[in-house]
Amino acid sequence: MNSYWDVGQFFSVSMLANDVGKAVQAAEKLFKLKPPVWYVVEGCSSNIQLWGNTQILKNLVVAWITSLFHLRLFVTDFVLYSFILGR
User: Fold this and answer.
1) pTM here?
2) Dihedral angle over CA of 8, 12, 46, 4, nearest 10
3) Residue 79 C-beta-side C-alpha neighbours within 13 Å
4) Deepest in the core among 17, 20, 50, 85, taking most CB within 10 A?
């Protein structure tokens, strides 16, 4: 890949996938391409926003799944104890 934008997208996808090795390789390639300053500023700002939004979304999904799991445990315990105590 010799296009700054292609390598930049690869870098972004590697970061989102938590593939540090490939992200480092892409960052080195970006550095060697010597892009104009405005490429870097525009690309970095949009990517940082994307990563931030993705992390927030991941945290919300994890919190939602965790709360559903705890609710299921509570209901299961409630039904079991009600059945045992009701006998």
Assistant:
1) 0.49
2) 0
3) 5
4) 50
